[in-house]
């Protein structure tokens, strides 16, 4: 059976962002990514220079750790990364769902997987111009299609500036069927640097005021709560 | 036709708390309340000493103001207070829904109204012991029943301390069918006092860690974003 490359497993804590904000969650962060966003806040799970810190685990071993962390009480599991879609999380999802756990997956939409249909929540987060990456919208549509069996599929876009904002409107026009979540970008990703709460609040205020002045009421606009509470520390 | 007592109408801005957190929203704050929570953050809409600041408006006048603020673009309208359930918001809801606007209402669950069934989201927020109020659970159940036609009904509980936390678990046990949202209490409600972001973050951290250590995964746990962004100012 498949072996997974895992950067970290932690929780339970609350989901800090997006559609499931505030939801008690266990996090499985997959190692490895097909993107290199310039502002990536999880480079330790992306850059293969860190691969010696990743653990090769069978799905059964990941599942045993999730059961231990949750005290065997069913809870939501978030698969993130890196890009979890470059690996096969189908067997882990099958193990967890059989015990009543719910699964969410956060991926950029660059690789479609059959197991997207077994998720409770598929979060597709196409990367805006400020990332330095480019979205292949054909593959993105394949991901939406692969997730048709999921309980819900949503789109989340990080917005750093006006160009990203304009791009988010175009992305929503391509997929108006997906509930949309906007999140102000966080340029401070160094775990050693204290977070500037006022700057975080100001960026959320800017994005909110931009959309409201524009009378664009389609997206929900949310910050990263975990950064507000715990700063850029890992494992929380 | 009915006349409404309105403390303030403002927006659009994002909903700062609860099930619709991040959602672009117009706020209609009703004047008058049947409760006097000791930590009330909206006393200007509760205490009748402020009633000279409330405006008597026909539903048509409220609706005209909502259209003006939203530039005639359909958006979510939140009815709050005070306790909006002591007044008749049915005619306003009918006007707005006919134009594609969505309605949410936030009420403690002390008065049941037929128009609860016309809402998109009914938020019932029973008040915990720290409020100094006592919940009549029979009337609360009447409110749940009155809201059966709403698209969703949820429960939101403010938690100031360990006694409130224990009470929230009991409240959830009474109504496990209602999705539950917990919100850390905010003891700093003076609009003139600058907000202590670290204290807000610490209270969210405390509530999160309490529930996680307890392996209580039922509630979503969310802060008041508007306090983080705008402090305790009114009209934002």
From TrEMBL, chains A, B:
<dbReference type="GO" id="GO:0008616">
    <property type="term" value="P:tRNA queuosine(34) biosynthetic process"/>
</dbReference>
<keyword id="KW-0949">S-adenosyl-L-methionine</keyword>
<dbReference type="InterPro" id="IPR007197">
    <property type="entry name" value="rSAM"/>
</dbReference>
<keyword id="KW-0004">4Fe-4S</keyword>
<dbReference type="GO" id="GO:0051539">
    <property type="term" value="F:4 iron, 4 sulfur cluster binding"/>
</dbReference>
<dbReference type="InterPro" id="IPR058240">
    <property type="entry name" value="rSAM_sf"/>
</dbReference>
<feature type="binding site">
    <location>
        <position position="29"/>
    </location>
    <ligand>
        <name>substrate</name>
    </ligand>
</feature>
<comment type="subunit">
    <text>Homodimer.</text>
</comment>
<feature type="binding site">
    <location>
        <begin position="125"/>
        <end position="127"/>
    </location>
    <ligand>
        <name>S-adenosyl-L-methionine</name>
    </ligand>
</feature>
<feature type="binding site">
    <location>
        <position position="40"/>
    </location>
    <ligand>
        <name>[4Fe-4S] cluster</name>
    </ligand>
</feature>
<feature type="binding site">
    <location>
        <position position="33"/>
    </location>
    <ligand>
        <name>[4Fe-4S] cluster</name>
    </ligand>
</feature>
<feature type="binding site">
    <location>
        <position position="80"/>
    </location>
    <ligand>
        <name>substrate</name>
    </ligand>
</feature>
<feature type="binding site">
    <location>
        <position position="42"/>
    </location>
    <ligand>
        <name>Mg(2+)</name>
    </ligand>
</feature>
<feature type="binding site">
    <location>
        <position position="82"/>
    </location>
    <ligand>
        <name>S-adenosyl-L-methionine</name>
    </ligand>
</feature>
<comment type="pathway">
    <text>Purine metabolism; 7-cyano-7-deazaguanine biosynthesis.</text>
</comment>
<keyword id="KW-0671">Queuosine biosynthesis</keyword>
<keyword id="KW-0411">Iron-sulfur</keyword>
<keyword id="KW-0479">Metal-binding</keyword>
<comment type="function">
    <text>Catalyzes the complex heterocyclic radical-mediated conversion of 6-carboxy-5,6,7,8-tetrahydropterin (CPH4) to 7-carboxy-7-deazaguanine (CDG), a step common to the biosynthetic pathways of all 7-deazapurine-containing compounds.</text>
</comment>
<dbReference type="GO" id="GO:0000287">
    <property type="term" value="F:magnesium ion binding"/>
</dbReference>
<feature type="binding site">
    <location>
        <position position="37"/>
    </location>
    <ligand>
        <name>[4Fe-4S] cluster</name>
    </ligand>
</feature>
<dbReference type="GO" id="GO:0016840">
    <property type="term" value="F:carbon-nitrogen lyase activity"/>
</dbReference>
<dbReference type="InterPro" id="IPR024924">
    <property type="entry name" value="7-CO-7-deazaguanine_synth-like"/>
</dbReference>
<protein>
    <recommendedName>
        <fullName>7-carboxy-7-deazaguanine synthase</fullName>
        <ecNumber>4.3.99.3</ecNumber>
    </recommendedName>
</protein>
<comment type="similarity">
    <text>Belongs to the radical SAM superfamily. 7-carboxy-7-deazaguanine synthase family.</text>
</comment>
<dbReference type="GO" id="GO:1904047">
    <property type="term" value="F:S-adenosyl-L-methionine binding"/>
</dbReference>
<feature type="binding site">
    <location>
        <begin position="14"/>
        <end position="16"/>
    </location>
    <ligand>
        <name>substrate</name>
    </ligand>
</feature>
<keyword id="KW-0456">Lyase</keyword>
<feature type="binding site">
    <location>
        <begin position="39"/>
        <end position="41"/>
    </location>
    <ligand>
        <name>S-adenosyl-L-methionine</name>
    </ligand>
</feature>
<keyword id="KW-0460">Magnesium</keyword>
<dbReference type="InterPro" id="IPR017742">
    <property type="entry name" value="Deazaguanine_synth"/>
</dbReference>
<dbReference type="InterPro" id="IPR013785">
    <property type="entry name" value="Aldolase_TIM"/>
</dbReference>
<keyword id="KW-0408">Iron</keyword>
């Amino acid at each position: 059976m498949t072996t997974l490359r895992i950067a970290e497993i932690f929780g339970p804590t609350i989901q800090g962002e997006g559609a499931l904000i505030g939801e008690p969650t266990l996090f499985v962060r997959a190692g490895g990514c097909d993107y290199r966003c310039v502002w990536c806040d999880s480079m330790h799970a992306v850059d293969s220079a860190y691969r010696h810190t990743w653990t090769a685990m069978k799905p059964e071993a990941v599942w045993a750790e999730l059961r231990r962390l949750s005290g065997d009480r069913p809870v939501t599991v978030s698969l993130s990364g890196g890009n979890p879609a470059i690996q096969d999380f189908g067997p882990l999802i099958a193990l967890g769902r059989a015990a009543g756990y719910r699964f969410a997956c956060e991926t950029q939409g660059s690789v479609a997987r059959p197991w997207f249909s077994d998720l409770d929540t598929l979060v597709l987060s196409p990367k805006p111009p400020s990332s330095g990456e480019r979205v292949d919208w054909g593959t993105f549509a394949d991901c939406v299609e692969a997730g048709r069996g999921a309980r819900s599929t949503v789109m989340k876009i990080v917005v750093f500036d006006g160009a990203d904002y304009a791009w988010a409107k175009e992305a929503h026009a391509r997929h108006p069927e997906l509930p949309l979540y906007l999140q102000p970008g966080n340029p401070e990703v160094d775990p050693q640097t204290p977070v500037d709460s006022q700057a975080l609040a100001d960026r959320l205020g800017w994005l909110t005021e931009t959309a409201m002045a524009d009378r664009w009421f389609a997206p929900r606009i949310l910050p990263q709560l975990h950064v507000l509470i715990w700063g850029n520390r890992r494992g929380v």
